[in-house]
Design a protein that fits this description.
Blueprint lengths: L8 H6 L8 H10 L6 H5 L3 H9 L2 H14 L2
Helix pairs in contact: 4-5
Length: 73
Amino acid sequence: MAENTEKKFREKYLAGEIEFEEIDDYSQEWGFSDTTDTLREYLGLNAEEEDAWVSVGDEALKELLDKQRHSSN
């Protein structure tokens, strides 16, 4: 079986290729897919990012990702 090499949400967002709001589309795609990946894996998030997203919400995850996005520039 071929390895899925498509970039995940996190990687695309950090690269500035997509807007944060596209996380909703990715989540919906995951819900309709046959993947065995968890949503966290499907989005490419780490445990800290997932915890912030689940516990606090979208803004907390966006803040964490934005810190990484700006520190890599």
